[in-house]
Amino acid sequence: MQASEFLYTSPANRRIQRAFEAGWILAVVLVPLASWPESEMLGFIQIPKVFLMRTIAMYFLALLALEWAISNRNDSSSNKFTSNRIRHYLQAHPSRLLLLAAGLVFLANIFSVANSPIPAIGILGIDVGWDTYGIANTTGFIIFFYTIATHLKTTAQVQHLIWALTLAGAIVGLVAIGQHFGIDIFRTAPFVLTRAHSTLGNSIFAGSFLIMTIPLTLLVFLEYRSKMSYFAHVSMGGGLVALQMTGLLFALSRGPMVGMISIIVTLLALLLWLKKSDLAVRVIAMFAIALLFALILTTLPTPDRQNFGGNDLVDRVSSIGPGIGGSLSNRYTIWTTAINAWGNVPWVDTEEFPELPDIGLSITKPIFGYGPDMFQHAYPLVGESTYTFELASHGHSFLIHALLEIGLFGMLAYISLALSAGFILLKIINKSRKSEELSFTALASIGLFAILIGRVIEQIPGKAQVSDLLIMWTLLAVIAALPLIEHSRTEASTPIDNSSSQRKRTTRRSKQTTSYQYRLVVPAILTVILIIIWYNFVLAQPLSAMTAKDAEQAAESGQIQKSLDLYRDAQSASPNSAIYYLKYAEILFELSKVAPTTAEKNRLTERAIIEVSEIIKRNPMDNRAWSRIAEMEKSLAKDNPEKKRDAFHSNMLIKELMPGFWQPSAALAWTYAELGEYERALDEVENAAALSANANASAASQATFIPFVEAFALDGLGRTAEAIDAVNRSLEMRRTQPAEELLKRLLSK
Asked: What pTM does this model have?
């Protein structure tokens, strides 16, 4: 019996151990695959994934409590292990570095929430389905990490986990292939043929996931090389990798492609360094088969575009390098702006705008950041005009994103996490140089080190979401467990006096008192609490999203009251989800436009403002909500001049949140113009034009609205010739119906 197995001598503990394993196996398979048809759920595809991840994390918490109670009652060896587990890791094992780094990551997030101008966002996330980096999700990842790191005990368990990830990767790849050829069995979204996203919701997320499963598949087949012929081994391994490699190519995500190349190079370099050229040849053979299969599929016609594979793939691959424009240049702008926001904490005028929160001490922001999920609010404070207000909702670089949200402390914690994992793996790999045959532990270490390198490279320009973050935290847990597994393997031959241990356990049980029974109450109470939390906060999200979808469909079919009632139900189930209040308000505002009387119009508009104000109460920096309030207040001011001040104030508040963007200035100018303040409108037009001149190309191309507003204001002042010149400038940039109608009216004068 191995030392690791001896830790679970009681039948109850063995059953709990199997329950743990079932949980993480289900997680790594189901979370990436979890999806719901867009026609049945309102919101981002991440909603079912977040639901499953949090559910299984809470399941682990309940099991941990039960394990504690049972081990202390029945099993002295488990009791000893439990009581000394932390000390053992921190004092005697290389994994201590990785465990400490994970703890630092969690601690950095806690400090960042405390330092956030809006702590609620840091805890619950920015919005339903978009709450990737909030404490709620981070806590789930940490629970997964520590649970797996402390309960993964044998090579068999590691093999089961890798096989599960291989299966998930193959399914993700197969779904991506189907999407490429016009078959979307999951009906997750109206997919784009040029960029398959599989079940991940985004081509980048799909690529990020697949570059972690492909090397694990290669690893699995390297382990079984001695059990089949060379041809069968290479063919089966290459075929399974081919599904995933094809999915990766069809995703057309350059960051994951570069990450995949670095993974293969790292794998081959390590195998050659260990003088295992035969294994390197097998890896090359399997990878070549997979790549050939993938390239053949890219040449096949698709339903809508006969030349898909060749042209698009070549274009994407050829754009990798220093000559890349568009996407990388935009990301460079985001990176430099984010770093600027981190190092130069902006100031918000809370005296003029008491609705806004105090950003906080400038000395603490660089250290602890603005708070989890606060990037899209912090970035516009120093950012430049982009195509939309929310384009830069992510740093498009994991470390830069972390730097702005959780500060230097958090970024260094993540770096220490990667370095500690690399240290553990290199130590195991180096030790295997003395062996003629690579053990499974050594093979696993080689594959995991390659994934670590590829993941770091891929995330330099990448975005991390729940699926790939969960898998990465799981693999980090495997890395933490590998030294223990290696240690247990070397001690497997040590005889253990079972009879003596049994006598000790029997003696201890005989001395148990009734007072010890209270330990069973702890997991029972915790389980009840977890069920309540799960029902009210975890299950509520997907249920509210489905209810909101029913509401949206009801509105589209003209069932307005039913739609409002359903949106109200969605709000009750998930009160922190801004989208449900916005949708409700939009219905009221649209009804106000066709109201039979002015009084009814204003009543509906005021109700709509109240709905949007619920968002502001939770998140006073939500520029989307403020923009809708400003529009509604402008509508009220057209009938009641006393309301002008409110409309102007809301628009100026948006300018305060986005001082470098031309859009708020243009919106304020339009508000001035529509409410008859033509001179003030022209002043704001001048501000908007100056900001637009400094904007990137994608933003500047949309600035046709600025000369249109100028023309409207000039017309109001009776300066018709100047107005005609302005509207012609607008039409030269882009032809729009409002501009053409204004020109027609001006020419008729």
From this structure: 0.88
